[in-house]
Structure formats: C-alpha cells, structure tokens
C-alpha cells in the first residue's frame, strides 16, 4: 500500500491531469483509488476533478466535500454557509482507506496550491500530508509537486518545495503539468533549472492537450510522459 499526495504550485497547473497519469500507470500494477477531499467550483455544473480522472482512467474515485463557487474551500464554505470537515478528518479517512488494504495505490489531489485553506481552521494540504505521513509506515507516503512550465515557475516551485521540507516532508519529485506545443526559452531552460534549483527529480512532463485524449491514448501518453518511474509503477 502506498499513498501519493499530489500538490502543486497553484491552481490550474495540471494537478488533475498528472493525478490521472499517475493513476493510469499505477493501475497497470494493481488496484488504484483517487481521492479529492475537497472540490470547489462545481455549482455551475462544471465537471469536478474526479469526473476528469474517471473519464481519463476508469479508476475508482472519491470526492468527500463539494462546494459551489470556484474559490478556496474555506472561502467557498463560508460564503455558502456550510461547515466542512477539518483537515484532520480527511487525513484520518485517507489513513483508514490506505490501511484497509482495498487498494495498492491511493492518490490524493489537493485543491489549488499547497497552502490553500481547506477548512475553517486554516488546515491545508501541507497539514494533511504531514498527518497522513505520520499515520502510516515509513516510506508509504510520497508527495509529488506539480508545476507549470513557464517563466515564474522557478520561484513558485522553490517556495512550495521549501515549505514541504520545513515540515519534514521531502517530495518525491516534480511533474510539469502542461508542456506547451511550442516551448519558449524559459520553458526549455526550466527543464534543466527546476531540478537544479530544487534538488528534486523531474518525474514527468505532461504535454498540453493530454487531457483531451481517449482513455487508451491517455494511458499510452501517461507512459511516455512520466520519465522517471515511481515505486508503485508497473514494470510492464
Ligand atoms: N496536460 C494537459 N492537457 C490538457 N489540458 C490540461 C493539461 N494540463 C492542464 N490542462 C487544463 O488546464 C486546466 C487546469 O488543469 P487542472 O484542472 O489539471 O488544474 P489543477 O492543478 O488540477 O487545478 P485545481 O486546483 O482546480 O485542482 C484544465 O482546464 C485542464 O483541462
Ligand atoms: C476553483 C479552483 N479550480 C480550485 N478548485 C480552488 C483554487 C483555490 C485557489 C486559492 C488561491 O490560491 O488563491
Ligand atoms: Mg485539479
């Protein structure tokens, strides 16, 4: 059993597509479940991240809280007048699901960047990652940081990685969530600079447009774009 926590430098960096790519690969080697503890922005009928993952991978998904407005969860909950679970409750559910042994890999996708407030007490995905790591055996939890390709990403990525390290969480690596068809100078340099400035491996680079592929084509793309194998990946 392993848990992969997918965070990112911000919203819209491609966490969901990367989560789907990791799920697609892990599903070759065993049973996978994807959890989105808190989803916001589905009030207008928009597809939630779990719908995207289901469509791209067919893996089972769980969404625990859904809020209407496309905002940080604590803001959306406050404006909607609802009380949502605190992060410690999500962490306990993740640990229980991991310990149940029902799945070989459990992927957890945050909402927005690492420090976005997921509850009214200021709990964040950083807190969730710390609690889940503390609740499971050594080495069972990996944190992946999804980042953007272009100018500005070096700063955002270092801030995110340093914040994880300050809580004793060493990320497994970085994934670029959307690689442009026509990369410019900054994108090209960042392929070298992101690993250099963070000291972390670049685990993968997902091409822009991957989210529109059929399930079969996405699975093939997931294999090609995740350049470094993770512990739960299929050897096939
Ligand atoms: N590789 C990709 N291929 C196609 N579309 C992509 C890719 N990466 C991101 N996108 C698109 O960019 C947008 C943001 O991506 P995504 O939903 O994965 O962001 P996120 O980091 O998961 O954000 P959130 O904080 O809302 O969970 C979406 O509209 C998605 O379809
Ligand atoms: C609505 C969006 N797609 C995400 N679900 C929530 C992103 C919150 C970001 C808050 C912020 O960092 O300013
Ligand atoms: Mg997402």
UniProtKB/TrEMBL annotation:
Residues forming the catalytic site: 36
One Gene Ontology molecular-function label: dethiobiotin synthase activity
Keywords: ATP-binding, Biotin biosynthesis, Cytoplasm, Ligase, Magnesium, Metal-binding, Nucleotide-binding
EC number, UniProt record: 6.3.3.3
Cellular compartment(s): Cytoplasm
Biological process terms in GO annotation: biotin biosynthetic process
Pathway assigned to this chain's UniProt record: Cofactor biosynthesis; biotin biosynthesis; biotin from 7,8-diaminononanoate: step 1/2
Residues annotated as binding substrate: 40
Reaction(s) this enzyme catalyzes, per UniProt: (7R,8S)-7,8-diammoniononanoate + CO2 + ATP = (4R,5S)-dethiobiotin + ADP + phosphate + 3 H(+)
Binding residue positions for Mg(2+): 16, 49, 109
Pfam annotation, one family: AAA_26
Binding site for ATP: 12-17, 49, 109-112, 177-178, 207-209
Stored InterPro entries: DTB_synth_BioD, P-loop_NTPase
GO cellular component, as recorded: cytosol
Cofactors that this protein relies on: Mg(2+)
Family per record: Belongs to the dethiobiotin synthetase family.
Record function comment: Catalyzes a mechanistically unusual reaction, the ATP-dependent insertion of CO2 between the N7 and N8 nitrogen atoms of 7,8-diaminopelargonic acid (DAPA, also called 7,8-diammoniononanoate) to form a ureido ring.
Subunit structure: Homodimer.
PANTHER family, per database record: DETHIOBIOTIN SYNTHETASE
The protein's name: ATP-dependent dethiobiotin synthetase BioD
Source organism of this protein record: Nocardioides psychrotolerans
């Amino acid at each position: 059993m392993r848990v992969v926590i997918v965070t990112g430098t911000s919203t819209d960096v491609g966490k969901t597509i990367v989560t789907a790519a990791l799920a697609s690969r892990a599903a070759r080697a065993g049973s996978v479940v994807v959890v989105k503890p808190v989803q916001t922005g589905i009030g207008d009928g928009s597809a939630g991240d779990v719908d995207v993952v289901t469509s791209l991978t067919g893996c089972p998904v769980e969404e625990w809280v859904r809020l209407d407005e496309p905002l940080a969860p604590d803001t959306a909950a406050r404006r909607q007048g609802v009380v949502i679970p605190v992060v410690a409750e999500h962490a306990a559910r993740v640990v229980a699901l991991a310990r149940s042994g029902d799945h070989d890999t459990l992927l957890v996708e945050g909402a927005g960047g690492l420090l976005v407030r997921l509850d009214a007490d200021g709990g964040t995905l950083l807190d969730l990652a710390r609690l889940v790591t503390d609740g499971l055996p050594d080495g069972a939890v990996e944190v992946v940081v999804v980042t953007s390709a272009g100018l500005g990403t070096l700063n955002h990525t270092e801030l995110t990685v340093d914040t994880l390290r300050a809580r004793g969480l060493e990320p497994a690596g970085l994934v670029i969530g959307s690689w442009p068809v026509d990369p410019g100078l900054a994108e090209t340099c960042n392929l070298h600079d992101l690993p250099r400035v963070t000291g972390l491996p670049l685990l993968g680079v997902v091409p822009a447009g991957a989210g529109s592929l059929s399930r079969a084509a996405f699975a093939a793309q997931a294999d090609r774009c995740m350049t470094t194998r993770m512990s739960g990946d299929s050897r096939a």
